[in-house]
## 1
Amino acid sequence: MTIRERAQELESRTLSKYAAHSADSLGRDREEIQDEIRTVYQRDRDRILHSKSFRRLKQKTQVFIAPVSDHYRTRLTHTLEVSQLSRTVSRALLLNDDLTEAIALGHDLGHTPFGHAGERVLNQICPLGFHHYEQSVRVVERLERDGKGLNLTKEVRDGILNHQWNLRPFTLEGQIVRFCDKIAYINHDIDDAERAGLMKESDIPDQIRKGLGATTKERLDTLMHDLIYHSMDRNEICMSQETEALMLSLRSFMFENLYTNSAAKKEEKRVPFLLTSLYGYYEQHIGDMPPEYTRLIEEGEPPERVVSDYISGMTDPYAVEKFEELFIPQRWPGE
């Protein structure tokens, strides 16, 4: 018996009947020889963790563009917080935390530079549209490994695609990530807003503070406990109606008071011009993109999609660097 087979046997004995067992995975688009040590979901997790797209998340905006302090969240730290919360819930419910972790680590791989501001710009200017959750799947299926993709299992790709609140993954592990994504960003964005001096704890409505808690720690504790205990021994991941309503009220409060706050978003007004300029340039100068992108067009991919692929994969500082290189006159190097 291999180490992988032993792990699969352990899953069959210890995981919930509602768990996604690795031995029963729907598989990959391209068949592969099984690893002797790792299950399919462990391999997926490792492939995501070692991907270039994952590393680039460290320099992509979460809420605040180019903050001076090192303590503000980035898209990478958000992803790690979602992963930690998701694994906690998954283990408590005896679900497959390897699958949960893989989905959590991959759920935002397709995010643009400058956060949702960049996503909105690409969705407006690309005739084919642009949504980060769809792009995250495109990253793992088509863009990584020079066009070969990561060849992840169907369960992981489904969880990545359907982590949005208005969508629903078919595994409970994916449903956990869907909840924990919201739990994570609502609470860590409050922490960052307080750090920025844009919000105080007392600004949060009393009804929410009384129902969920008066600190970030208390709210996380309330939300996580509610999610776990109301999902236990059920074939769905859910909260109590009261707690979910309070969570969504807090999310609405954050949209009204932070995500559309003029002080927090003052730098975002520069994003449309910057990304639209880059998009227009590369649309007219396809050959100036790296070979791994021009190759996709040679293989029949629409140029508009590939230009979006290239721009969405940029980090914040790289997008600024390319803009300066293409549109800002350089100093003459002579004496």
Note: The radius of gyration is 21 Å.
## 2
Amino acid sequence: MSCPRIERERLEHAIVGPYGMLAENSRGRLFPEEPCEIRTCFQRDVDRITHSKSFRRLKHKTQVFLQPEGDHYRTRLTHTLEVTRLARTVARALCLNEDLAEAIGLGHDLGHTPFGHAGERALNAIHPDGFKHYEQSLRVVDVLERDGRGLNLCYETRMGILHHTHGAPDDTPEAVAVRLCDRIAYINHDLDDAIRAGLLTDEGVPERIRRECGERNSERIDSFIRDLITNSRDGVLRMSPAMQETFDYFHSFMFSDVYTNPLAKGEESKVEGILEKLYTYYTAHPEALPEDYAGVIERDGRERAACDYISGMTDGYAMEKFGELFIPFSWSVK
């Protein structure tokens, strides 16, 4: 019986174009290991991320709206899945490696804090070395997962995760696809959630966006993705100048009318207080951290361990630990 992985790698020569990343050409893993007989290295990365604890926790982490009441608001997990599906669509249309795009998409936000970007800003202000979620995402897959052993992902997956916000000169086209699809996904689904939350109405969406992108969420996403696919060539992914201008306008509108809207951000000062108190407590009492953080404390110090632990918390768990540590028992509601 032939090796399924080898057969898949041969097939990639037919389905992955000249600018896509072939699995057989990967620069490899941090620690060499025997290849899987069934899966390519990028397929293996997809599975390792999907089965990780940090991936499962994303379902209880805020995207934009803190503790929203309703079942249809995005979480960090649904955002991740939307980005990944868009990236796979783009990768397939442009004959890139879909498996690599999927791995980067699934792993890009593993290091995100509880309470969305409010939590990220809080930890960045508190931790002496600062905090960036994309750097933490790489730390999660390299160091923190699997009880400190990390996931040992491929170089291309790791760098795509690290650079998914700002990019890097040597990005693979698959990494660029994820970065662009991340931006397309979040401005569109955050607008959809803002309308659901009553911050905006359908009629309140600027006429330029509705005219050039569409009236509905699905139409707007389709407009951007189609334009991106149509105007990308020779391994360079880009939107048309006109659509890029519209995207930039859309992006600016989201920051002015949604991301900084007092109604959406009224609880953020509480987030800062919660995370600051947790951080102060765990740096003063490193023995209160879970046992599997002992290696982090020894190697990187108690501040880094506290930051790692808090950034990995879900929204609910952060509030639960805050309640246990700082709210007197007699005040608790039972």
Note: The radius of gyration is 21 Å.
## 3
Amino acid sequence: MKPGLAIGQYYPSDSIVHNADPRIKILLVAAYALAVFFIGNFTGFAVIGVMLGGLVILGGLAIGLVLRGIRPLFVILAFTLLVQLFTGGEPWALIGPLKISIPGFKTGMFLDLRLILLVIGASLLTLTTTPVALTDALEYLLSPLKRVGVPSHELAMMMTIAMRFIPILSAEADKIIKAQAARGARFDSRNPVTRARSFMPILVPLFVGVFRRADDLAEVMEARAYRGGKGRTRMRELKMKPGDWFGFAVVMLLLAGMVWVGRMPVI
């Protein structure tokens, strides 16, 4: 497992979260994302963080494994915080031409926390759901669109493959970076222009590897007589259990409560 990414990877376990119906988990993640956008203060984020911690424990996941998925976002998070720090709201202090804003700092932290919570929620879905179950669940949820000619099976397959390619591409990029570093490339330079130039030679072999993997995958699917979703059967049919409905109701109530708390006056 690639240590730097959690989205797109599956962590096998026999926990209550792993055994939940994948359709319920997808719907809950969608509701969770909406709830995160509706929350308007840090108190709501704190409550939703406690809920995520409980789900991590119930899923038998290592907290460090989930948090490692945030590492690739450090540049984006730092950039967002700095932009808000120097441009948002009334200035608190001056450093030369730069104006430091405390309200801007709070806004930057708020935006960063929102992005972190969204990534962790998406990571929990892929860490506790196999690619096959995820594909079947997406196809089931998109199946009503078949009546208007939308290929739900093909869409679900493409979305799942794209998600699974995230850790594969990350591992491929890591290998190329190590190979370039062994040949004398400098990726630790403090000059941003130099660092950007050193990363340019990575793009060509990375894209070549991507197209090669995609071509290999297409040949494998063709060799196994894949012809889309028409006439396909499943070894395991998705069936809702009473525990799935109960868990869905509990989490939806928790999300509604968090949105209510999150719409209270900002602290």
Note: The first strand starts at residue 93 and ends at 95.
## 4
Amino acid sequence: MDDAIDPGSPRYARQRVLPGFGDAGQRRLADAHVVVLGAGGLGSAVVPVLVAAGVGRLTIVDDDVVDVTNLHRQLLHGHADVGRTKVDSAADAAAALSPETAVHPVPHRYTAENADALLADADLVIDGTDDLPTLYVADDAAARAGIPLVWGSAARFSGQVGVSWEERGVSYRDLFPEPPADGGLSCEIDGILPTVCTVTGGMMAGEALKLLTGIGEPLIGRVLVYDALSGRTREVRYRRAGDVAAPPRGSRSAEGASRGPLAGAGPRDGAGAPPRPEAPAEVEAPALADELASDAPPVLVDVREPWEAEIAAIPGSVLIPLGELGERASELDPAASVVVYCHLGVRSQRAAQQLVSAGFGVVRNLAGGIDAWSRTVDSAVARY
């Protein structure tokens, strides 16, 4: 359909003058179709920015209804919206900001059954559900569609933002191969500072605008971690297991590297990717405690970030953040028995795969990470 947005409108004058943005960038936004998963705390920051910036079409997917406990952070909705579907409330808020934007509300959960259909003509998908099963479905569907996935999460005082793009060589599964067994933190149980949603969602929207217009350097293969209590941000780099400087899987030549408004998008097929390596062996926390107390303890490698190690660590471990493991693996003995751990056992699984690919003979992952260690071995180790 013909978009109703006028890219030359004075409404967008303050962003058209940005270096590298211009009329071409504004036209890309007007021609773009973005699918937003989740109309909650993160979606409440993402949707208004995209609509106000001039994105032509927006599909909003969420099966939830507005609850009064949402209102302190989900600013798309007001008191009068309690009981309404979030997508309808979000669509009304978007229309109030930009009546010209075509908004398609989908009051259903995003699942493996409807994922491909909802992304059929999308240029970008944004996951703001903060629901790990949905994120993995979105990651796989985006890979099949050949489009980037902007994802974010927010809980307590911290938020994370990243970009996964199989066509450019990394997916969310390369960062976290499998979801944690406990499902991670939740706002209902663990709480959430409202500004964490605002900041995290704003960064997610910024990544979307960069990808759609072709400006800047997207967070591909990088995760930005925001700590509201300290006001600091940290970056975590990652790559496909076993990759050193390998080209992206399924990469194409520059001649075929554009589709529609998305600057630099590749062809929309997900075929031809090699199988992922099998998951490494795991060791349960109590069994590891016994091994560490023996005459031949394994080498214990902590692949978390330094700020996490400051909160809690298993005594005697070597700290090598996951993003540095490729460069620092030579500090470890390939012939030694190595156990890697992280917070919940997901990053360390990827680290173990990376070490196996690098020629390490005996590598295991601590199941459940340091959180399991705290719960089952040493309660004095802080949980976070």
Note: The longest strand covers residues 149-155.
